Structure formats: structure tokens, C-alpha cells
Amino acid sequence: MSHEERYPEPFLMRMRELLGDAEFAEFYDALQRPPVSAIRVNTLKISVERFKEISPFPLEPVPWCPEGFYIPNDVEPGKHPYHAAGLYYVQEPTAMAVGVVANPQPWEWVADLAAAPGGKATHLLALMEDKGFLLANDIDRRRLTVLAQNLERWGARVWVASNERIEHLHPNFPEVFDTVVVDAPCTGEGMFRRNRDVVDHWSPRAVRGNALRQEHLLDAAAPLVKPGGFLVYATCTFNPEENEAVVARFLRKHPEFTLEPVEDMPGASPGRPDWVDPELAKGIPLEHALRYWPHKVKGEGHFIALLVKEGYYRPRTPLTIPEPKRPKGMPRKVWNLYKQWCEETLTEMPRVAGVMLVGEHLYACPINPGRLQGLRILRPGLWLGTVKETYFIPDHALAMWLKPEQVKHRLDLTVDDPRVLAYLRGEQIDDPGPEVWVMITVEGYPLGWAKRVQGVLKNRYPKHLRWTW
Ligand code: SAM
Fold it and tell me: 69-87: per-residue pLDDT in tens?
């Protein structure tokens, strides 16, 4: 089969028209090469310097993201215990540019409106240093469940996962977010090298359909941005209909926004005003948008626009988290079971605000839970655990968020200890000692819980996460 047959002819023709013969040849050449692999280090858990020392793979820096590294194509980063410990996220390198452009600061309120499976959300939380609030929203419940697993493994606390249409969010969150990210569903031309399915779903009609949907999503996102706040629009597609044209239409309808230049983004090429209708582009500095091209950088390709809403920007102030105490309305019995478990297992009660009971589940909500009223919520905050009639069961998410030194009883394993694999496969481990909850760590990084009963660690690694390889 010749390569020309691998991509839809109308796609190739459009790209040739846009890029011109010489650049198209380079672009086309890049599309024939294999995709690159990369990981982004989780600075909530480990410094980049330390990760470089313990990395199981050779690392080559991604120029535009200080935490990003290319890794060889023949390794399986998802099958290493450090992945289970949340030390990194496997992410396409140009996708890392979105978090860098959004650049959220600690204590800010950030919304990632099309967030699943959580690549950008994990990046945003790391940059926020797990302080402030991230609303991670997605319309697809199944994908949102994967996002929750990814964010829990990441060990972050200050997020809520909602399962809403973007337009439903406005009454609860009117003009409150410092930064809103719309990493829009798109035709994914930048993913062609990675995913044959995306190629098969491409059509000129799909381009038009996605462009309409993207305009609609941006319209719904605009009223969530606070005055002086940022709206980041991103796609992983090349055509201007879903990129510059969407931004230009948005700006025509929303004169309260402007398109800002982004300084110091290595590898980025400018947006292309010349690729949209001159009437539409008139007066809009579309060259301020960023494009990443597979023939110019090592990566697949992304489009990013940084929009700023007019108005006086009021920065947020850091909050102090109060001493743990029973929240108003929480049944005394529930609080006491949780407290008793903390006293037996931890060096002190977790310093978290907003402890709340949903059914039998205890969460720590990073904002006033009243804000979530009426929304479909998958996780209202960090999942602390489940309260039964006479005891409390800690959740996996809590293990991933805690620092090992906060836990009294641990089984600290080195990465080559066969018990690491045994634990991740869901096996029990012999370990004499008192009957307590034990945190399992690998090289000092939490993997999850076990409960020691009669000299055996009963495995509490979640069944759906267990390794089958
Ligand atoms: N930001 C994600 C990441 O970095 O892992 C990738 C997001 S993907 C490009 C686009 C997402 O938009 C999909 O997960 C899809 O379910 C979601 N989506 C599509 N229509 C939506 C809508 N109307 N509201 C919210 N999310 C939507």
C-alpha cells in the first residue's frame, strides 16, 4: 500500500494548498514517521531532578515543558511501578504546551471543561501545586471515570469531577475562574500518526461539524471566566476551520476578549490569519495563536490560543486550612469512626477543608459544596473513604494523596522487590505484625493500602487497577 492511501485525499489536498508544495513535502514526510513517546513528571510527588536520577528510561527534555521528557518508543511507561505510584503521566509532547500556556498559579480557580482523560488536568494541578480549585469537567461519563482514576493516581486533592454540558455550569460558576481551558473535541488531524481510527473518522463534513461544536463550547465557556481572567482554546488538529476561524468568530461575538501573544514557547509557529476569510480575520491578530507542527518539532501537533477577558483582575489570596473538626451537620458517629481510623493509622488527622458525607462516602471538597448544587458530580473532592456501621475504610485516593511520613505503618519496598509486582497484581503478602492498615510504598512513593490480618497483608489495591501482565 502506498503512503498516499493512508490519509484521506481531501485532507492531503487541503494541506498541500495551505502549506505550499515545499512545506507540504516536509509535513507529509513527518506523517510517515512513527509518533514519539513522552512522559511528564509529577512535581506534586517528585522533583524533576530526583526523577532524572531514578528514571527507568533514558530521558530527553521536551523543549517547551520543563517537566516533559521524550522516552524511547520501545518502552512501556504505563507498565512500570512508578506509573502506578503516579510519578509521571504519559502524554503527547505538544499537548504539554497547553498547560504551559495556561500557566495557572497556586490558589487560582481553574476549569478544564473538556478534561477527560486528564492529561491537561494533571498538568494544571501540578502547576497549581494542588492549591486552589480545579473543576475537571467532561460530558462523557465513561471517559470521566478514567479521568478520576488518573487524577487520584496523581495524588491531587483540590479537584472536583463534574459530568455536565458546559452551558449548565454558568449558574453555579458565574465569572469565577481565573483560567478556563477548552481542550476541544476536534477532528484530531494531529493524532493521525497515532491512531488509525481518527483517520477513518475524518471527513470535510466532520471538520465543519467540529468547528460548529467548538464555537458553541467556547460561547458556553466565556461567562465562566472572571474579569481579567484567561480562556485557553486548544485543539490537536491542523485545519484553520477548527482553529483560527473558531477563534476569530468567537472574538467577533465576544469583544470583551482579546487574543494575547505568548512569549517564549520554544518550537511554536504562529497562527495563520492568511488561512481564514479576510473579512473574518480583519483586525484580529491571529498570528498570536500558537501552532505546533510535526515537521517542525518532535511531536504530533497542536493549536493553542490564549484569550484574555477585559476587566480588573483581582488575584486570589491563599487560604489557611483550619484544624480538623467535625463539620456542622455531620453525624457524630461518622466523624468518630473516621477520627478513630486516623488516630490508629496516621500521625495526625489530614488537614483538609470541606469534609462531607455523600451516602456512605466521605470526601474533602475543595470549595463550598453549595456551589455544586444541581450539577452531576462524579467526585466532589478527595475521596477519603467509606463509613460502614462500625468502621471506616480508607479509599485508594487518600493513600495516593498522603505523604508516606504521615502514615504510621508502612511496607517500604525497593523497585526491584518482587513484592511490588505481587502487590500491584492484587496478591496478599506475608508480613507479621499488629493488625493495622499499612501503606505500601515503592522507593518511598505510595502505591496503596493493605490491611494486616493474622500476619498477612490483605491486598486493598483497587481491583480495576490491578496489573494483569
Ligand atoms: N483535555 C483532555 C486531556 O488532556 O486528556 C482531552 C480532551 S479531548 C480532546 C475532548 C473531550 O471533550 C472529550 O473527552 C469529550 O468527551 C469532551 N466533550 C465533547 N463534547 C463536550 C461537551 N459538550 N462538554 C464537555 N465535554 C465535551
Answer: 999 999 999 999 999 999 9
pTM above 0.90, yes or no: yes
DSSP three-state, residue 448: strand
Long-range contacts of 275-280 (CB under 8 A, 24+ apart): 275/18, 275/240, 275/244, 276/240, 276/244, 276/245, 276/248, 277/245, 280/245, 280/248, 280/249, 280/252
pLDDT of residue 241: 98
Domain boundaries, the chain: 33-309, 321-402, 404-469
Q: Is beta strand 159-162 parallel, antiparallel or unpaired with respect to 88-90?
A: unpaired
Q: How far apart are CA 438 and CA 459, in angstroms?
A: 10
Span from the CA of 179 to the centroid of ligand 1 (angstroms): 17
**CA 118 to centroid of ligand 1, rounded, Å:** 10
190 C-beta closer than 6 A to ligand 1: no
**Equal fold, 33-309 vs 404-469:** no
User: 60 CA to middle of ligand 1, Å?
Assistant: 29
Tell me the residue type at 51: F
Q: What would the pLDDT profile of 406-419 be if each residue is shown by its tens digit?
A: 999 999 999 999 99
**Residue of 98, 139, 150 best suited for mutating to test ligand 1, as the one with most atoms within 8 Å of CB:** 139
Of 428, 256, 434, 278, nearest to 345 (Cα)? 434
| Ligand 1 lined by 68 (C-beta under 6 Å) | no
CATH class of 33-309: alpha beta
146 touches 116 (CB < 8 A): yes
Q: What is the CATH number of domain 404-469?
A: 2.30.130.60
Determine if ligand 1 sits within 6 Å of the CB of residue 183. yes
Grid coordinates given for 182 = 477548552
Give the mutation target among 125, 149, 183 for probing the ligand 1 site: most ligand atoms within 8 A of CB: 183
Which pLDDT tens digit goes with each residue over 96-105? Answer: 999 999 999 9
* Distance between CA atoms of residues 69 and 92, nearest Å: 10
